[in-house]
Design goal:
- It is built from two helices and three strands; from the N terminus they run ααβββ.
- The protein has 125 residues and is an alpha+beta fold.
- Strands 1-2-3 form a three-stranded antiparallel sheet, covered by helices on one side.
- A hairpin with a 2-residue loop joins strand 1 and strand 2.
- The mean pLDDT is 91.
């Protein structure tokens, strides 16, 4: 069994370093953007919790905003304010919309812009 030497299989140092760089980049993204989505989950759940409020249809705009603000304070949400909330009423239907953008630095002069737009509707039963 002589002849040609068999080629070694596996990652070269360069391909391993490249793989680690790509994995590192995605980990960096996860650490930078993950908290934004966690905050959005809290915003979304506070919005959804308005549906379970029996007096929500009778509440004033200010009361609804205060309720949301209180829940955001408790959950330490700092990416959204009451200025991002739009409340409309028509034909016995109350719509509460929260639309906002979050900019997070990723690395150097690279930033991520994330847009959220959530809405609930509550109608008279």
């Amino acid at each position: 069994m002589g002849g040609m030497p068999r080629h070694q299989r596996g990652l070269t140092f360069l391909s391993f370093a490249l793989l680690m760089a790509v994995a590192g980049f995605f980990l960096l993204l996860l650490f930078r953007i993950g908290p934004v989505y966690l905050n959005h989950y809290k915003v979304r759940s506070s919005l959804e919790s308005l549906k379970s409020d029996r007096e929500i249809l009778e509440k004033s705009r200010e009361d609804i905003l205060k309720t949301l603000e209180k829940r955001w304070d408790i959950n330490m949400v700092d990416t959204v304010t009451t200025k991002d909330v739009r409340i409309t009423r028509s034909d016995g239907i109350l719509r509460v919309q929260v639309a906002y953008e979050v900019v997070r630095p990723i690395m150097g002069n690279v930033e991520a812009l994330i847009h959220f737009d959530d809405q609930i509707e509550v109608e008279r039963r």
